[in-house]
UniProtKB/TrEMBL annotation:
Signal peptide: 1-22
Family that this chain belongs to: Belongs to the UPF0065 (bug) family.
Name the UniProt record assigns to this protein: Tripartite tricarboxylate transporter family receptor
Keyword DNA repair attached: no
Organism: Pigmentiphaga humi
Record bears the keyword Cell wall biogenesis/degradation: no
Coiled-coil intervals, chain numbering: none
Superkingdom classification of source: Bacteria
Keywords: Receptor, Signal
Length: 317
């Protein structure tokens, strides 16, 4: 009888120790790293990150493209996964900070995730053709003020950060311009070069090495390392703009020791030569941030966008 009693006690103790022991040794098996978009673009940088994380943790980080619904399908699959650190998401912030305001019937919210670490900042740039008469941002804005509604610009998606940046700048600068959304930076630039647009808002990487366009301003609070001679909009007197930060996210409720291990691995992975080289090729500014400050910045971003979407009268569709 007494031995049966102690057997029950030990069973309870072992059941409690099991998860803690698993957390201490994390990871003990391969980790799924979900990118909620298709292959191409920054996808190649995240693949390098997955390999770097595998070397740090001693287990493979299996990189998976799970695209659809502007990132919502992949994000939802991570949100409903077991919060044990073995299913993570990597990618841009918009799946948490934008889609809850623009997509109807999402199966997740901003609060469905724990923020593990920030990796990069992908700033956006306002550019004109190289032969444009506009040499400075103010030259362009002055001309737009004199011709309300007659200047066309291109961007890569309605109510994405790219679009929101120009809506914000137009409001602050007192200009009326017409936007045209294209499926990506490539088509956007083609229409600019064809003369259909006065300017575009694009990712820095898409214009940094080109000589047929002229960047006028970067939407960030500092100059971008890939475009050191191009002023930031903040430098030019404007404010409240969005950068496309990229990071790693876990299902809500992932144990803190696991988050801590992951963020340590992240900080080391982004400093590897392989990752730094890949980021430079992508035009991504490596700006690592740990879990708590990353989560705080993300929430601020999310709430700021909520106010902006409210002012614009945007309803989920």
């Amino acid at each position: 009888m007494r031995s049966a009693k102690w057997a029950g006690v030990f069973a309870v103790l072992f059941s409690l120790a099991g998860p803690a022991a698993a957390q201490d040794g994390y990871p003990t098996r391969p980790v799924q790293l979900i990118y909620p978009f298709g292959s191409g673009g920054t996808d190649s940088l995240f693949r390098v990150f997955a390999m770097a994380m595998g070397k740090q943790g001693g287990e493979q980080f299996v990189y998976i493209n799970r695209e659809g619904a502007s990132g919502a399908i992949g994000a939802a699959s991570v949100a409903r996964a077991q919060p044990d650190g073995y299913t993570l998401m990597i990618g841009p912030s918009i799946v948490m900070t934008n889609l809850p305001y623009t997509q109807k019937d999402l199966s997740y919210t901003f609060d469905s995730f724990d923020f593990v670490c920030q990796l990069n900042v992908n700033a956006f740039v306002l550019a004109v053709r190289a032969d444009s008469p506009y040499k400075r941002l103010e030259d362009l804005l002055d001309a737009a003020r004199k011709s309300p509604g007659k200047f066309n610009y291109g961007h890569s998606g309605t109510y994405t950060d790219v679009h929101l940046n120009m809506l914000t700048l137009a409001k602050q600068a007192g200009v009326q311009v017409q936007d045209i959304a294209y499926r990506g930076d490539g088509p956007n630039l083609l229409r600019l070069l064809a003369g259909d647009l006065e300017f575009t808002i694009n990712s820095v990487v898409s214009v940094a090495s080109r000589n047929d366009v002229r960047p006028l301003a970067v939407f960030w609070d500092r100059r971008h390392p890939a475009l050191p001679d191009v002023p930031s909009v903040v430098e030019l007197g404007y404010s409240s703009f969005f950068t496309g930060y990229q990071g790693v996210y876990a299902p809500k409720g992932t144990p803190k020791p696991v988050i801590g291990k992951l963020e340590d691995m992240c900080m080391k992975a982004v400093q590897t030569e392989e990752y730094q080289t890949a980021a430079q090729k992508q035009g991504a500014a490596v700006v690592p941030m740990r879990s708590e400050p990353f989560a705080a910045e993300a929430r601020k971003n999310y709430e700021t966008k909520g106010k902006l979407f409210g002012e614009l009268g945007v309803q989920p569709q």
